[in-house]
Structure formats: C-alpha cells, structure tokens
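Researcher: Here's my situation. A collaborator sent me these components and asked whether they could plausibly form a single complex. I don't have experimental data yet, so a predicted model of the whole assembly would be a useful starting point for our discussion.
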Amino acid sequence: MQCSDKKSNDAVNYLEAVFRRIYPQDSLFRDKAVHHLEQLTMPPWALGDLMDLAVDLAGMTRSLEPPVARKKIVVMTGDHGVTAEGVSVYPSEVTVQMVHNFIAGGAGINALARQAGAEVVVVDMGTKVDLSELAAAGKIIGKRIGSGTGNIAHGPAMTRTHAVMAVEAGIEVAEELASEVDVFGTGDMGIGNTTPSTAIAAVMTGQDAAVLTGRGTGLDDEQLQHKIKIVEKAIAINRPDPKNALDVLAKVGGFEIGGIAGLIIGAAAHRKPVVVDGLISTAGALIANGLEPFVRDYIIYAHRSVEPAHRFMHERLGKKPLLDLNMRLGEGTGAALAMNLIEAAVAVLTEVATFADAGVTGSPVKA
Amino acid sequence: MQCSDKKSNDAVNYLEAVFRRIYPQDSLFRDKAVHHLEQLTMPPWALGDLMDLAVDLAGMTRSLEPPVARKKIVVMTGDHGVTAEGVSVYPSEVTVQMVHNFIAGGAGINALARQAGAEVVVVDMGTKVDLSELAAAGKIIGKRIGSGTGNIAHGPAMTRTHAVMAVEAGIEVAEELASEVDVFGTGDMGIGNTTPSTAIAAVMTGQDAAVLTGRGTGLDDEQLQHKIKIVEKAIAINRPDPKNALDVLAKVGGFEIGGIAGLIIGAAAHRKPVVVDGLISTAGALIANGLEPFVRDYIIYAHRSVEPAHRFMHERLGKKPLLDLNMRLGEGTGAALAMNLIEAAVAVLTEVATFADAGVTGSPVKA
C-alpha cells in the first residue's frame, strides 16, 4: 500500500494544482454580454433562459463570440460490484456490449451526437472485461482503474487512492482533448450505476433514499423497494462523509462517476463549458462541486431525467437544467440535445441586430 | 356586401374542401414506429418524449423515415387596432420595422432559424403600412386582408368574410410552399397581438382574463391591469361564440392569427408536421382546432412561454410543449429551437441499432 499511498499523495497534489487553475466566470464579459443582449431587436430579455445561457457562455469563455463549433461528448464507462445485489434488470455484460455499439456508431448517443454535430469519445474507466485492446487500437481512451468497483452493499466501491486516480484520469482526458474541443459533454455507461449515483445524491443532498431512488432501466415495484434498501445499506455500512467528496466517491461511487467529476474539473480548468447529462453525470458534478466549488461556473445542466434524485441534485447544485423530456438513458444523450441550445444561445449573442443597427424603435412608448 | 358574401361563401366551400383532405395520423405507421423503437439498444422508451415525437412524426408522414430536412418557418405579420388602447409598450410602427429586420436577416428568428437549418418566410397578412412592394419584389409573400384590424375594445377585429379570407390565405401559403417543405413552423409579428391572442384563449378555454393576461413585451403592474380590462371589454362587447372558431377569429382575433390557423390547416392537409410557436401561434392553433379538430394530429407544440395563457391553451389542446425556457418573443423562435428536437427524434427512429443488430443483450434479466 505504500506505493499506492505515494501515488495517492502525488495525485492529490496534482488535483490541488488543477483546482488552483479554476477561476469563476469573468464578470466583465458577463456584463458586456448583458449590455449587448439588452440592445437586441426584441423586448428586454425576451429569449429568457437562452439569454442567461449566452451570458454564462461569455463569462466562461471570456468572449462575446464564445466558440462552440467543436463539441465532444465523453462517455465514461465502468462496471459496478453492486449489480450482484440485483439492482438492475440488465447484466453487467451489457456495459461492454454497449461500448462496442458506441464504437460502431449505433447507440442513442451516436445518433443524437451526429444530429448536434458533436463527436463521441468513449473512455474505459473500469469495465469488468478488460478493454485495453480497444484502447491500444485507438478506438477508445483507456484509463482503467480496475475491473469494476466493489459491492457497495458490503464495503467501499474503491480505495481512496483509486478515487483520486479516477478523478485524475478524467482531468487527463479533458487535458488531452482540450486543444480540439470548444464544448465538452459528459456521458456514462455502466450497468448498475444509478445505484451509486443515487447513494451519492442521498449523501450530498441529505434526502432519504426512499425519496430519491428510481427505477433505473426498468425495475418493477418490488425491485424498486429492494434497490432502496441497497442504497440505504450502502450508506449505513460505508458511512461516507458528505463534506468529503473523495470519501463519498470512494465509498459509494463508481470509476466512471469519478471520471466524469474529473472531466468537469478539467473542462473548468480550461475555461470550457461542460454540458452535464443525466443522473450519473450529475452525481459526477456533485463530486466535482464538492472538490472545487468554482467548477459550477462552467457547468450547463442539460436536462432533468425521470429519476427522482435528479431534481434534488439540481436543487443542491443551484441550477435549473435546460430540458425536461422524460428521458432516462444516460450515455450523454441529454447533453447532445442541449448542444443545440448552446449553439442557439451563441447565435442570439452574435447574429441578432441591435435596435440602432436595424432602425427599429427600441424605446418602449408609454402604454 | 353581396360581393363579399359570395366571396365568403366560396371561401367557406374552399375551407370545407380542405378540411375533407385532413385525416388523423396513420395508426399503422405509429404502431410500426413503436415496434421498432422498442427494439433499440436502450431500456424501454428511455428517450421518453423524443420517442413519442418520433411516433407522431411516423404517424403524420406515413413513413418510418420521416423527411424533416427542409424546414420553413412562416412568420405571419399583421397590425392591431387595439394598440390604440395602450396595450403594448411598442408602437405599431415596429411591426413593419421588424419585417425589414426579418428580410435583412437580423432578428431573433433569423439567428435561431439559421442554427436549426430552417428558412424564414415572411407573410404580410395585414400590416398598417402597405407592404405590397416588398411582396412584388419577392421579399415577402403578400396576402394582405386589410391595413390592420379594428379595435376589439370597441367592435369586431374584422368581418366574417375577412376572417375566412385570412384562414384561406394561410392555407394558400401552405399550398404554395408544400412541395419544398418537410416541416412547417409558425411565427408571428404584430405589435399588440398578445391582446387578441389572450382574448381568444379566454373565450376558448373558459378561463378569466385576469388569470390569462400577461405582460406581453413588458407591461408594468398598472398597464397589466389595464390590459386585463381591455381583454374583458373586447369579449363583453363582441360576445364571440366559443363553439364557432370563425366567429372568435373575426370578433377578437387578428389577420396574422387567421393566417397561422390557415397555415396549420394547410400543413395538416399535406400531412406535414407543423411546429407551433408561442402564445400568438397557439391562438392560431386554437382557431384551427376549432375549425377542424383533426389538425391536432399534425401539430407539435414547441414551447411554453412566460405568458400565463399559454399553459391553459396547451391544456385545452391536450398536448404538452417540448421546451420551457422562459421565452416570450414569438416570431417563431420557439419553433426554430424545437426543429432540432424533431431532427433528433428522427435520428433516434432511423439511426439507432436494434438489440439484434448490435449483439446487445436485450431481454432484461430478473433483477
């Protein structure tokens, strides 16, 4: 363990160094964007949330022409020991089957990313089956922490060292891609991963598992009650410290959830917007936010899924998601849809004429 | 008036002939789409509303590959006599100023339509200033019914003949464009038009004006109370018959609202999806729905605006809008944003692999 501990300490130092690069949004560019948007040929703030988003993008990117053309959705994959408890209707094998589907371009995220003009990048954070060959062939990015997590119903998901490594790996992915990406999106694939995500939500929002737990990929009533018990058991046995995000990740998290947290942190360090997808991605955002709260200034929440925990997580993080379409797929599918709204927000900021330019009467008359 | 009445009767016959061409969605193609979507490599119906939308598109277009590439947003413009009552903070002149802005490509709808790959088509349904020269030059489509409506606080907006002509004109626009359009979007421009739209909503939902009336382009509290009184007065004086959509349109409507109703009817007659934008467009949908209820099968409601009436109108029409982004611009801006979701729904229907094709385990295991 000594070797691991050294690695862990180095990594924590690495994390701290990255955190020091994360600043809040630039208020000057936010103000400039607000000033410009107020002069557009439309009633004040008539495009609502789209204009708020435009201001955020200006503040993130320090630009009144936020670059958003190059979009990548990073799908973090990993397996979960807790599947042994029967918390999912699908077997763990499906995780890797879906990785092959991603590579072949046949999954939901592939279709929606294509529509949004985004590329899909798959990262192996720790599937049960070793995917090193796919990584060596350049078809995915290999960042394996292990062959699936431990069963959180009986002990921690991973060691603290592995938790640090998972976050670090996510940051590395962001670093490696940053020069070719304007907007990051997060995605996930990991059979069983709504269970650790709900456990993270319970620990970090303080809500009961019974309120938060959802049907995941399709549990019936009885299976749902069982899943609630497993989430409660995982928290009771592991006693994660809500004030310590690494502790929460290690005890009731997942490799891909740590990778997502790292990707968010890395995006923020590069002042790039990162579109956070569904329940699992938002669990990653809770971890990232716990590690370095300034990351919140770079996150755009894509959508609210049907998983009950999701709403509480967004409330805890203090932001409203853009879409609410009764989705529950993950993979980054919500992030892909939201990419269109990001492009739209930039189009409003950069393409709409002002009252002065267009010769439109801008000063409202007294009604 | 005899000449007008003849015209009116011919037009009603024309309307009846168009209504006879409108059939409900094809249930066979809906069923085929459901069957296909259930086999995709994802948990059952995991893309929620997007999958419902895909089924609707299949049912509308009688195709499992619904064509959606060619998109046009038709912005219907008209002026309103009720602006004399001080119901808007902008003067009527802004309607035509914005038409020039649309032509120059500088308005909100231009930016958002470009992002969505849609074209903007402007129709003069009856602005205060005659725009025949722009129509003759091919920059807009000319379908003028008159130089703005009458003041609904004192009498009807238009004659019954003009109401029929407005709807007919909208149908004609759909007919003229149908061969080059896969998906229609509706839009509007007309200073003062939230007042007739709210009056239509009050008549056709049965809700009180006080509950429905919003701030439009930016009324203060006092101005809002005044607008409520004007809506109430318009209904009290004109006594529109809620069971007679033409009567409602004639008494408290607007030329562009009639044009929008016609466009929706024309789109339905051509079995083309029509994306209905905000408050004014939805008032047009209420009129279209009142004239021929089968049109509902071809309407996609884009978004819920901040205008209070909008929610009640969607409830009356029995459909949930796709987006809710605190917008209140009109012009078709919500419809443009929704076009991306329509493309996404088709991408799900046509591009995602089935369990069998991808070799993914599709039968859920007993959890």
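Model: Some features of this prediction you could bring to your collaborator: Chain A has two domains: 2-65+349-358, 71-341. Chain A touches chain B through 69 residues (CB under 8 Å).
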